[in-house]
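## retry 2 of 3
previous attempt timed out at serialization; input unchanged, resubmitting
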Amino acid sequence: MWLRLAALAAFAIAPCVHAQAPSPAVESLTLDDAIARVARVHPDLRLFGARTDALLAERDAAILRPPLSAGMQLENMLGTGDARGFSGAELTLTLAGVLERGGKLDARRTLAQARIDALAVQREAQRLDLLAEVARRYLAVTAAHAQHEIAEQDIAQRRRTVAAARQRLQAGASPESVLLTAQAALARAEMAAARAKQQQDAARQHLAALWGERDPGFAVAPGDPLALPAIEDTQALAALLQGTPELAQFADEPRLREARLRLARSSGTADLDWQVGVRRLQESGDTALVGSVSLPLGSARRAGLEARAAEADLAALDIERESRDIALYSTLTDAHGRFRVSQLEVQRMRDDVLPRLVRAEQAAERAYRAGAISYLEWAQLQSDTTSTRRQQLEAALEAHRALIELQRLTGQALVAGTATAEQGSTP
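## retry succeeded, writing output
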Protein backbone atom coordinates (compact mmCIF):
# COMPACT_ATOMS: atom_id res chain seq x y z
CA MET A 1 0.00 0.00 0.00
CA TRP A 2 2.85 2.36 0.79
CA LEU A 3 4.48 1.91 -2.62
CA ARG A 4 3.08 5.21 -3.90
CA LEU A 5 1.68 7.03 -0.88
CA ALA A 6 4.70 9.12 -0.08
CA ALA A 7 4.62 10.91 -3.40
CA LEU A 8 1.26 10.39 -5.14
CA ALA A 9 -0.08 13.77 -4.07
CA ALA A 10 3.21 15.62 -4.28
CA PHE A 11 1.47 17.47 -7.11
CA ALA A 12 -2.30 17.80 -7.25
CA ILE A 13 -1.82 19.77 -10.41
CA ALA A 14 -3.39 20.21 -13.79
CA PRO A 15 -1.27 20.30 -16.94
CA CYS A 16 0.59 23.58 -17.13
CA VAL A 17 -0.99 25.82 -19.74
CA HIS A 18 2.33 27.40 -20.62
CA ALA A 19 4.36 24.21 -20.89
CA GLN A 20 5.33 22.88 -24.27
CA ALA A 21 4.68 19.18 -24.74
CA PRO A 22 7.91 17.20 -25.08
CA SER A 23 8.96 15.94 -28.45
CA PRO A 24 7.42 12.57 -29.39
CA ALA A 25 10.95 11.16 -29.60
CA VAL A 26 11.58 12.05 -25.92
CA GLU A 27 10.06 9.93 -23.20
CA SER A 28 7.70 11.85 -20.90
CA LEU A 29 8.31 10.78 -17.31
CA THR A 30 5.53 11.19 -14.76
CA LEU A 31 5.95 11.10 -11.01
CA ASP A 32 4.36 7.64 -10.91
CA ASP A 33 6.89 6.44 -13.49
CA ALA A 34 9.78 7.73 -11.38
CA ILE A 35 8.36 6.08 -8.26
CA ALA A 36 7.95 2.75 -10.05
CA ARG A 37 11.54 2.82 -11.31
CA VAL A 38 12.97 3.58 -7.88
CA ALA A 39 10.80 0.98 -6.14
CA ARG A 40 11.94 -1.62 -8.65
CA VAL A 41 15.71 -1.11 -8.67
CA HIS A 42 16.90 0.99 -5.72
CA PRO A 43 19.41 -0.97 -3.62
CA ASP A 44 18.09 0.38 -0.31
CA LEU A 45 14.86 -1.54 -0.94
CA ARG A 46 16.44 -4.61 -2.51
CA LEU A 47 18.76 -4.86 0.47
CA PHE A 48 15.84 -5.86 2.69
CA GLY A 49 15.49 -9.07 0.69
CA ALA A 50 19.01 -10.09 1.67
CA ARG A 51 18.39 -9.07 5.27
CA THR A 52 15.22 -11.14 5.35
CA ASP A 53 17.08 -14.17 4.03
CA ALA A 54 19.73 -13.68 6.72
CA LEU A 55 17.13 -13.46 9.49
CA LEU A 56 15.32 -16.51 8.16
CA ALA A 57 18.58 -18.43 8.28
CA GLU A 58 19.18 -17.21 11.83
CA ARG A 59 15.68 -18.31 12.79
CA ASP A 60 16.26 -21.75 11.34
CA ALA A 61 19.51 -21.97 13.29
CA ALA A 62 17.82 -20.75 16.50
CA ILE A 63 15.23 -23.54 16.48
CA LEU A 64 17.84 -26.29 16.22
CA ARG A 65 18.40 -28.31 19.34
CA PRO A 66 21.91 -28.53 20.83
CA PRO A 67 24.03 -30.95 18.80
CA LEU A 68 25.10 -34.36 20.02
CA SER A 69 28.78 -35.06 20.51
CA ALA A 70 30.48 -38.39 19.84
CA GLY A 71 33.65 -39.10 21.74
CA MET A 72 36.31 -41.69 22.38
CA GLN A 73 38.43 -42.11 25.51
CA LEU A 74 41.50 -44.29 25.78
CA GLU A 75 42.72 -44.96 29.34
CA ASN A 76 45.50 -46.87 31.11
CA MET A 77 48.09 -46.67 28.37
CA LEU A 78 51.71 -45.69 27.94
CA GLY A 79 52.34 -46.10 31.66
CA THR A 80 54.67 -48.35 33.64
CA GLY A 81 54.45 -51.92 34.77
CA ASP A 82 51.19 -53.55 33.77
CA ALA A 83 50.10 -50.28 32.07
CA ARG A 84 53.15 -50.26 29.87
CA GLY A 85 52.33 -49.64 26.18
CA PHE A 86 48.78 -50.42 25.16
CA SER A 87 48.45 -53.83 26.74
CA GLY A 88 46.25 -52.52 29.59
CA ALA A 89 44.42 -49.81 27.59
CA GLU A 90 40.68 -49.49 28.01
CA LEU A 91 38.54 -47.90 25.29
CA THR A 92 35.36 -45.96 26.00
CA LEU A 93 32.98 -44.73 23.28
CA THR A 94 30.65 -41.90 24.40
CA LEU A 95 27.67 -39.94 23.18
CA ALA A 96 27.04 -36.58 24.90
CA GLY A 97 24.47 -33.81 24.64
CA VAL A 98 22.70 -30.97 26.41
CA LEU A 99 19.16 -31.16 27.74
CA GLU A 100 17.75 -27.65 27.44
CA ARG A 101 15.39 -26.60 30.21
CA GLY A 102 13.23 -23.56 30.87
CA GLY A 103 11.72 -23.16 27.39
CA LYS A 104 14.88 -21.84 25.75
CA LEU A 105 13.98 -23.30 22.35
CA ASP A 106 10.59 -21.58 22.23
CA ALA A 107 12.13 -18.32 23.47
CA ARG A 108 14.74 -18.37 20.69
CA ARG A 109 12.09 -19.15 18.09
CA THR A 110 9.86 -16.28 19.27
CA LEU A 111 12.75 -13.81 19.30
CA ALA A 112 13.87 -14.77 15.79
CA GLN A 113 10.35 -14.43 14.39
CA ALA A 114 9.86 -11.07 16.09
CA ARG A 115 13.03 -9.78 14.43
CA ILE A 116 11.71 -10.88 11.03
CA ASP A 117 8.36 -9.16 11.65
CA ALA A 118 10.10 -5.94 12.75
CA LEU A 119 12.12 -5.91 9.52
CA ALA A 120 8.93 -5.58 7.46
CA VAL A 121 8.01 -2.36 9.29
CA GLN A 122 11.54 -1.03 8.83
CA ARG A 123 11.28 -1.71 5.12
CA GLU A 124 8.08 0.30 4.82
CA ALA A 125 9.63 3.20 6.72
CA GLN A 126 12.64 3.11 4.40
CA ARG A 127 10.34 2.99 1.39
CA LEU A 128 8.41 6.06 2.52
CA ASP A 129 11.62 8.02 3.06
CA LEU A 130 12.92 6.99 -0.36
CA LEU A 131 9.72 7.82 -2.22
CA ALA A 132 9.56 11.19 -0.49
CA GLU A 133 13.05 11.83 -1.86
CA VAL A 134 11.77 10.90 -5.35
CA ALA A 135 8.99 13.47 -4.97
CA ARG A 136 11.42 16.17 -3.83
CA ARG A 137 13.75 15.59 -6.77
CA TYR A 138 10.84 15.48 -9.19
CA LEU A 139 9.66 18.77 -7.68
CA ALA A 140 13.10 20.28 -8.31
CA VAL A 141 12.83 19.46 -12.02
CA THR A 142 9.35 20.96 -12.23
CA ALA A 143 10.54 24.04 -10.30
CA ALA A 144 13.38 24.63 -12.74
CA HIS A 145 10.94 24.27 -15.64
CA ALA A 146 8.62 26.86 -14.05
CA GLN A 147 11.56 29.20 -13.44
CA HIS A 148 12.44 28.91 -17.12
CA GLU A 149 8.87 29.85 -18.08
CA ILE A 150 8.99 32.93 -15.87
CA ALA A 151 12.30 33.90 -17.46
CA GLU A 152 10.76 33.48 -20.93
CA GLN A 153 7.89 35.79 -19.92
CA ASP A 154 10.42 38.31 -18.66
CA ILE A 155 12.35 38.06 -21.94
CA ALA A 156 9.14 38.81 -23.88
CA GLN A 157 8.56 41.88 -21.71
CA ARG A 158 12.13 43.12 -22.12
CA ARG A 159 12.04 42.67 -25.88
CA ARG A 160 9.01 44.93 -26.07
CA THR A 161 10.92 47.44 -23.98
CA VAL A 162 13.94 47.29 -26.29
CA ALA A 163 11.72 47.76 -29.35
CA ALA A 164 9.94 50.72 -27.77
CA ALA A 165 13.25 52.30 -26.66
CA ARG A 166 14.68 51.89 -30.16
CA GLN A 167 11.64 53.62 -31.68
CA ARG A 168 11.94 56.54 -29.26
CA LEU A 169 15.69 56.79 -29.95
CA GLN A 170 15.07 56.88 -33.68
CA ALA A 171 12.42 59.54 -33.11
CA GLY A 172 14.86 61.56 -31.01
CA ALA A 173 12.64 61.32 -27.94
CA SER A 174 15.12 59.49 -25.68
CA PRO A 175 18.91 59.06 -25.43
CA GLU A 176 20.89 56.02 -26.49
CA SER A 177 21.54 55.15 -22.84
CA VAL A 178 17.89 54.14 -22.45
CA LEU A 179 18.19 51.64 -25.30
CA LEU A 180 21.43 50.24 -23.91
CA THR A 181 19.88 49.88 -20.45
CA ALA A 182 16.90 48.05 -21.94
CA GLN A 183 19.22 45.75 -23.88
CA ALA A 184 21.18 45.01 -20.69
CA ALA A 185 17.94 44.12 -18.90
CA LEU A 186 17.07 41.80 -21.80
CA ALA A 187 20.49 40.15 -21.53
CA ARG A 188 19.95 39.54 -17.81
CA ALA A 189 16.56 37.97 -18.53
CA GLU A 190 18.15 35.69 -21.15
CA MET A 191 20.84 34.75 -18.64
CA ALA A 192 18.14 33.83 -16.09
CA ALA A 193 16.47 31.61 -18.70
CA ALA A 194 19.76 29.88 -19.51
CA ARG A 195 20.43 29.36 -15.82
CA ALA A 196 16.97 27.85 -15.31
CA LYS A 197 17.53 25.53 -18.26
CA GLN A 198 20.84 24.39 -16.81
CA GLN A 199 19.21 23.86 -13.40
CA GLN A 200 16.51 21.76 -15.05
CA ASP A 201 19.12 19.52 -16.69
CA ALA A 202 20.99 19.14 -13.40
CA ALA A 203 17.79 18.36 -11.49
CA ARG A 204 16.79 15.79 -14.11
CA GLN A 205 20.19 14.13 -13.77
CA HIS A 206 19.79 14.14 -9.98
CA LEU A 207 16.39 12.48 -10.31
CA ALA A 208 17.64 9.81 -12.73
CA ALA A 209 20.50 8.97 -10.35
CA LEU A 210 17.95 7.39 -8.00
CA TRP A 211 17.52 4.46 -10.37
CA GLY A 212 21.09 4.47 -11.66
CA GLU A 213 20.58 6.16 -15.03
CA ARG A 214 23.69 8.12 -16.01
CA ASP A 215 22.47 9.73 -19.21
CA PRO A 216 18.76 10.53 -18.79
CA GLY A 217 16.87 10.68 -22.04
CA PHE A 218 13.48 11.65 -20.67
CA ALA A 219 11.55 14.85 -20.15
CA VAL A 220 9.51 15.37 -17.03
CA ALA A 221 5.80 15.60 -17.77
CA PRO A 222 4.80 19.29 -17.52
CA GLY A 223 2.59 20.39 -14.68
CA ASP A 224 1.46 23.53 -12.89
CA PRO A 225 3.20 23.79 -9.50
CA LEU A 226 0.91 26.69 -8.57
CA ALA A 227 -2.08 24.35 -8.29
CA LEU A 228 -2.25 23.22 -4.67
CA PRO A 229 -4.61 20.61 -3.21
CA ALA A 230 -6.97 21.13 -0.31
CA ILE A 231 -5.95 19.12 2.75
CA GLU A 232 -7.51 18.26 6.09
CA ASP A 233 -6.88 20.20 9.29
CA THR A 234 -4.12 19.34 11.73
CA GLN A 235 -6.22 17.16 14.02
CA ALA A 236 -7.46 15.00 11.16
CA LEU A 237 -3.91 14.47 9.94
CA ALA A 238 -2.65 13.77 13.46
CA ALA A 239 -5.06 10.84 13.66
CA LEU A 240 -3.29 9.32 10.65
CA LEU A 241 0.03 9.25 12.47
CA GLN A 242 -0.99 6.16 14.42
CA GLY A 243 -0.77 4.02 11.29
CA THR A 244 2.64 5.21 10.12
CA PRO A 245 5.63 2.85 10.13
CA GLU A 246 7.47 5.04 12.62
CA LEU A 247 4.76 4.37 15.21
CA ALA A 248 3.72 0.98 13.85
CA GLN A 249 7.09 -0.37 14.88
CA PHE A 250 6.07 0.24 18.50
CA ALA A 251 3.23 -2.25 17.98
CA ASP A 252 5.72 -5.02 17.16
CA GLU A 253 8.48 -3.84 19.46
CA PRO A 254 6.81 -5.14 22.66
CA ARG A 255 6.80 -8.67 21.23
CA LEU A 256 10.48 -8.35 20.37
CA ARG A 257 11.48 -7.06 23.80
CA GLU A 258 9.24 -9.53 25.61
CA ALA A 259 10.89 -12.32 23.62
CA ARG A 260 14.30 -11.08 24.75
CA LEU A 261 13.07 -10.97 28.34
CA ARG A 262 11.71 -14.49 28.09
CA LEU A 263 14.99 -15.75 26.67
CA ALA A 264 16.91 -14.04 29.47
CA ARG A 265 14.67 -15.59 32.12
CA SER A 266 14.93 -19.02 30.56
CA SER A 267 18.70 -18.83 31.04
CA GLY A 268 18.07 -18.98 34.78
CA THR A 269 17.16 -22.66 34.46
CA ALA A 270 20.43 -24.49 34.01
CA ASP A 271 20.79 -27.01 31.23
CA LEU A 272 21.76 -30.59 31.97
CA ASP A 273 24.88 -31.94 30.29
CA TRP A 274 24.57 -35.70 29.87
CA GLN A 275 26.86 -38.38 28.58
CA VAL A 276 26.50 -42.13 27.98
CA GLY A 277 28.99 -44.59 26.63
CA VAL A 278 30.33 -48.09 26.34
CA ARG A 279 33.63 -49.12 27.96
CA ARG A 280 35.67 -52.22 27.22
CA LEU A 281 37.30 -53.66 30.33
CA GLN A 282 40.72 -54.83 29.29
CA GLU A 283 41.33 -57.37 32.03
CA SER A 284 38.15 -59.38 31.50
CA GLY A 285 37.37 -58.41 27.92
CA ASP A 286 33.87 -57.47 29.01
CA THR A 287 31.97 -54.28 28.15
CA ALA A 288 29.97 -51.99 30.43
CA LEU A 289 27.83 -48.88 30.14
CA VAL A 290 29.02 -45.60 31.61
CA GLY A 291 27.07 -42.39 32.08
CA SER A 292 27.29 -38.96 33.68
CA VAL A 293 25.13 -35.89 34.28
CA SER A 294 26.41 -32.40 35.16
CA LEU A 295 24.59 -29.22 36.15
CA PRO A 296 26.35 -25.81 36.00
CA LEU A 297 26.07 -23.64 39.11
CA GLY A 298 25.40 -19.90 39.27
CA SER A 299 23.16 -19.73 36.18
CA ALA A 300 20.26 -18.12 38.03
CA ARG A 301 22.31 -15.15 39.21
CA ARG A 302 23.73 -14.38 35.77
CA ALA A 303 20.32 -14.81 34.15
CA GLY A 304 18.79 -12.49 36.74
CA LEU A 305 21.09 -9.67 35.66
CA GLU A 306 20.20 -10.20 32.00
CA ALA A 307 16.49 -10.31 32.87
CA ARG A 308 16.74 -7.03 34.81
CA ALA A 309 18.26 -5.31 31.77
CA ALA A 310 15.54 -6.77 29.50
CA GLU A 311 12.81 -5.66 31.92
CA ALA A 312 14.18 -2.11 31.98
CA ASP A 313 14.33 -2.08 28.19
CA LEU A 314 10.71 -3.23 27.99
CA ALA A 315 9.56 -0.65 30.56
CA ALA A 316 11.20 2.14 28.55
CA LEU A 317 9.16 1.29 25.45
CA ASP A 318 6.12 3.38 26.45
CA ILE A 319 8.33 6.39 27.11
CA GLU A 320 10.07 5.96 23.76
CA ARG A 321 6.75 5.77 21.96
CA GLU A 322 5.45 8.89 23.72
CA SER A 323 8.61 10.78 22.82
CA ARG A 324 8.38 9.68 19.18
CA ASP A 325 4.69 10.60 19.05
CA ILE A 326 5.44 14.13 20.29
CA ALA A 327 8.26 14.55 17.76
CA LEU A 328 6.09 13.37 14.87
CA TYR A 329 3.21 15.61 15.89
CA SER A 330 5.53 18.60 16.16
CA THR A 331 6.91 17.94 12.69
CA LEU A 332 3.39 17.49 11.33
CA THR A 333 2.10 20.78 12.77
CA ASP A 334 5.14 22.63 11.41
CA ALA A 335 4.69 21.18 7.91
CA HIS A 336 0.93 21.81 8.01
CA GLY A 337 1.47 25.42 9.03
CA ARG A 338 4.02 25.99 6.28
CA PHE A 339 1.63 24.54 3.73
CA ARG A 340 -1.25 26.75 4.85
CA VAL A 341 0.86 29.93 4.85
CA SER A 342 2.33 29.20 1.43
CA GLN A 343 -1.06 28.23 0.04
CA LEU A 344 -2.51 31.57 1.18
CA GLU A 345 0.42 33.46 -0.31
CA VAL A 346 0.03 31.74 -3.68
CA GLN A 347 -3.70 32.41 -3.74
CA ARG A 348 -3.43 36.11 -2.80
CA MET A 349 -0.74 36.73 -5.39
CA ARG A 350 -2.77 34.97 -8.04
CA ASP A 351 -6.03 36.74 -7.24
CA ASP A 352 -4.93 40.17 -6.04
CA VAL A 353 -1.30 41.12 -6.63
CA LEU A 354 -0.35 39.77 -10.05
CA PRO A 355 -3.50 40.86 -11.94
CA ARG A 356 -2.92 44.43 -10.78
CA LEU A 357 0.77 44.36 -11.62
CA VAL A 358 0.08 42.97 -15.09
CA ARG A 359 -2.49 45.68 -15.79
CA ALA A 360 -0.14 48.33 -14.42
CA GLU A 361 2.70 47.07 -16.62
CA GLN A 362 0.46 47.14 -19.69
CA ALA A 363 -0.67 50.67 -18.86
CA ALA A 364 2.96 51.72 -18.33
CA GLU A 365 3.88 50.37 -21.76
CA ARG A 366 1.19 52.48 -23.40
CA ALA A 367 2.22 55.50 -21.38
CA TYR A 368 5.91 55.06 -22.26
CA ARG A 369 5.19 54.76 -25.94
CA ALA A 370 3.14 57.95 -25.66
CA GLY A 371 5.97 59.70 -23.81
CA ALA A 372 3.98 60.13 -20.60
CA ILE A 373 6.42 58.23 -18.30
CA SER A 374 10.12 57.42 -18.26
CA TYR A 375 11.74 54.11 -19.13
CA LEU A 376 12.66 53.53 -15.49
CA GLU A 377 9.03 53.52 -14.39
CA TRP A 378 8.07 50.93 -16.97
CA ALA A 379 11.17 48.80 -16.29
CA GLN A 380 10.49 48.89 -12.57
CA LEU A 381 6.98 47.55 -13.10
CA GLN A 382 8.36 44.79 -15.32
CA SER A 383 10.86 43.85 -12.60
CA ASP A 384 8.13 43.88 -9.95
CA THR A 385 5.95 41.60 -12.05
CA THR A 386 8.74 39.08 -12.65
CA SER A 387 9.85 39.23 -9.01
CA THR A 388 6.28 38.59 -7.83
CA ARG A 389 5.93 35.63 -10.19
CA ARG A 390 9.12 34.14 -8.75
CA GLN A 391 7.94 34.85 -5.21
CA GLN A 392 4.65 33.11 -5.96
CA LEU A 393 6.47 30.13 -7.43
CA GLU A 394 8.75 29.85 -4.40
CA ALA A 395 5.73 29.93 -2.10
CA ALA A 396 4.12 27.16 -4.16
CA LEU A 397 7.30 25.09 -4.01
CA GLU A 398 7.45 25.53 -0.24
CA ALA A 399 3.86 24.32 -0.05
CA HIS A 400 4.72 21.22 -2.10
CA ARG A 401 7.76 20.50 0.06
CA ALA A 402 5.57 20.73 3.15
CA LEU A 403 2.99 18.48 1.48
CA ILE A 404 5.63 15.85 0.71
CA GLU A 405 6.70 15.93 4.36
CA LEU A 406 3.09 15.52 5.49
CA GLN A 407 2.69 12.52 3.22
CA ARG A 408 5.93 10.99 4.47
CA LEU A 409 4.70 11.37 8.06
CA THR A 410 1.17 10.06 7.53
CA GLY A 411 1.73 7.62 4.67
CA GLN A 412 -1.39 8.96 2.98
CA ALA A 413 -2.30 10.95 -0.13
CA LEU A 414 -3.59 14.08 1.56
CA VAL A 415 -5.92 15.54 -1.06
CA ALA A 416 -9.29 16.02 0.64
CA GLY A 417 -11.93 13.87 -0.96
CA THR A 418 -14.54 16.59 -1.23
CA ALA A 419 -12.19 19.35 -2.27
CA THR A 420 -10.75 20.10 -5.64
CA ALA A 421 -7.28 21.37 -6.33
CA GLU A 422 -6.88 25.05 -6.93
CA GLN A 423 -6.87 25.76 -10.63
CA GLY A 424 -5.65 28.70 -12.55
CA SER A 425 -2.36 29.93 -13.87
CA THR A 426 -0.37 33.01 -13.30
CA PRO A 427 -1.60 35.98 -15.32
